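notes to self, project folder thing:

trying the whole complex as one job this time. last attempt i did each chain seperately and stitching them together was a nightmare. two parts in total, labels are on each line so i dont mix them up again. if this works i'll redo the older ones the same way
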Amino acid sequence: MIDFPIIRVVSKFMIPYILLFGLYVQFHGDFGPGGGFQAGVIFASAIILYGLVFGLPAAKSVAPEWFVEKLIALGLVIYAGTGFTCIALGGNFLDYDVLDHHVLPGFLPHGQHLGIFVVELGVGITVTSVMIVIYYAFSARERRA
Amino acid sequence: MMEFIVIPILALLFATAITVAVIRNLWAAVMFTGIYSFLGASWMLILDAPDVAFTEAAVGAGVSTILMLATLSLVPRSSRKRGSISNSDFETKDPPRRRVISSLLVVIGTGAMLIYGTLDMPLFGSADAAIQTYPAPSFIEKSQTEMGEHGLPNVVTAVLASYRGYDTLGETAVIFTAGIAVLLILRKNKASDEIGAGQSEVTS
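result (full assembly):
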């Protein structure tokens, strides 16, 4: 679709804003609507749009396949790791109250807020990378046909 | 005033659903499912569920439409024989009339039972509904104080990631498993392509 100037220009214009909106939904999810899952699909849809317009190799140079595949596991590890960190700090599994700290109070989130923030980040990473990997898998078959 | 938005959206949802079921051109059907998802996202926004609207717009209208189109490029474009398509594997013949009528009766019966079941439910938006009275007030009252001194204004996030954090961990694991499963299936096909490359030309 790179031959269509309108699609090329408009999507080039849109993609940064879609990515920015994805980050906003991710990191503002504690205050506004959204969270890891929503942010993940929005972020992934920007990369999928890039792949649709500029071709699969271009998308793979932005988000290499081996890297995205590792991210699938990383997100889940971040989530479960938060739970185990809570145990290590003397609380229950996923009991974020023990994450309280006194570094930069009022600026860095802590306690429950920090736990939710980290956990949502894990969800976002896993969802983004799963969506991208599924798209890569399907469109690789499309090219062959 | 809201009726001017609500009624057209619901009417369009209905019309789109009928169109998807009736239309024979699969490309058009996929585009209509995308339109259906966008209308669904608008509807979710009216119901004050922007989270669900985001997801519906991005997954339903975006990603799944693209995946369906990618799949369609591997199969014939029409679900019924239309002259030029000669691949007999993908043709669907109309079932015999007697089976159509009995299926229709089953569908109507199931639908009637479901509608009968909704008669017992509280009215839409009713303040006495179970969902408004039992868990919600306690979460809304307590989450502000329990979520630390900054507070966490979004109760939905607090419930999903903290009160029910274990559920969400399981959901993330489900997404992880789904991604790995897709990779395993399609990877395997990629490896066997080199062996069966000549064979696939014969079959397609």
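what i see at first glance: Chain A has a mean pLDDT of 86.
need to look closer tmrw
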